[in-house]
Amino acid sequence: MSKLTIVADIVANEDSAEFVKQELLKLIEITRGEEGCLQYDLHQDNDNPAHFLFFENWVSRELWQDHMGGQHLADYLEATEGKVASFVVSEMSVIG
Q1: pLDDT score recorded for residue 24
Q2: What are the domain boundaries of the chain?
Q3: Contact present, 4 and 58 (Cβ < 8 Å)
Q4: What integer pLDDT is reported at residue 96 of this predicted model?
């Protein structure tokens, strides 16, 4: 199986953008150290500071699922409850 690419599209409530950003930044170092993580980059929209995107590459879906079950993500979800307007995760594979 080829590596798994994840695109996580997060839009914070406008009044919570900076708080959500700080919580997202906390995830980077921990996640980059996880088994199977090849790339974990956070982006912020130049025109909309409440819009964030994680671009991730993982060795396998199983190792990404281990990441998704981690305590650091549970802590993020708890801290940002009610502060995020949308959170869409897309699992993608290289096709060319």
Answers
A1: 98
A2: 6-93
A3: yes
A4: 77
The span from the CA of 58 to the CA of 38, in Å, is 5
**CATH number for region 6-93:** 3.30.70.100
- Return the structure tokens found at 52: 């964030």
How many CA atoms, within 13 angstroms, populate the side-chain half-sphere of residue 61? Answer: 6
Phi-psi region of 6 (alpha: psi -120 to 50; beta: other; left: phi over 0): beta
The two three-digit tokens of residue 2, written as one number = 């080829």
Check if the beta carbon of residue 14 is closer than 8 Å to that of residue 50.
Answer: yes
Mean pLDDT for back-to-back runs of 10 residues, the chain (96 residues): 90 98 98 97 98 97 94 96 98 88
